[in-house]
Amino acid sequence: MPASFIELDLPGVYEIVPQKHEDDRGLFMEVFRESDFARQGLPSSWVQDNQSLSRQPGTLRGLHYQSPPMAQDKLVRVTKGSILDVAVDIRKGSPTYGHWIGIVISAEKFNQVLVPKGFAHGFVTLEPDTEVQYKVSAYYSPEHDRTISHDDPDIRIDWNLDGNAPILSDKDAHAPRLGEQDTGFVYQGALTEADT
């Protein structure tokens, strides 16, 4: 049985829940099947797999994106622990420009999130020793690597930190606001069935 694809409140961002096959030994599942993504008209060409380990809860990575022509689609899953995963629309002219969506991704639930090009991505860990794995559709390019401030007052993401300061890299701690940069993304209109 194919995975479930649930489009979230930001069009183009999907939660994906693989079908699990369980018995007394444990479980088996297909975490990615190209034909399922193709049927949905979603990106399915991945060139790089990344993995992060965050020792402490409250570790925040993001908001990150790569500018064109090295823009990346991302398929994110958690293999240990859990995260609040966030996507932000950074396409100029989009009706949801600057809007964000957050969803809990966990090893227990086995769910994933697809973050398409034109969206910044970040997450905060909710448990110790959380492992995140994600596929990307373009190679890492330092010249195109961009960061947006996690606490940009124009975006106002609720990271659910209960007033605690997040654990940040130096790069993320000094990231500019969205309004201070040209992301290189322009809204091209919503896709129709004829486009897929």
Give an overview in words:
The chain is mostly beta strands and 196 residues long. The chain has a single domain, classed as Jelly Rolls (Sandwich). 6% of the residues lie in helices and 37% in strands. The strands form 3 sheets. The protein has a 6-stranded antiparallel β-sheet, with no helix packed on it. It has a 5-stranded antiparallel β-sheet with strand order 9-8-11-6-13, with no helix packed on it.
Task: Please describe the structure with a list of short key phrases separated by commas or semicolons.
single chain, 196 residues, mainly beta, Jelly Rolls, five-stranded antiparallel beta sheet, 2 helices, globular, disordered C terminus
Q: Judging from the principal axes of the Cα atoms, what is the shape? A: globular
Determine and state the CATH class. Answer: Mainly Beta
CATH superfamily: Jelly Rolls
CATH topology: Jelly Rolls
User: What order do the SSEs take from the amino end to the carboxyl end, as H and E?
Assistant: EEEEHEEEEEEEEEH
> How many domains is the backbone divided into?
1
Number of helices: 2
Give the mean pLDDT. 93
User: Largest beta sheet, briefly?
Assistant: 6 strands, antiparallel
Q: How much strand content do the residues show? A: 35-45%
Task: Give the low-confidence spans.
Answer: 192-196
Q: What integer value in Å does the Rg equal?
A: 17 Å
SSE-based structural type: mainly beta
Q: What's the architecture in CATH terms?
A: Sandwich
- Total strands: the figure is 13
How far apart are the first and last residues' alpha carbons, in Å? 22 Å
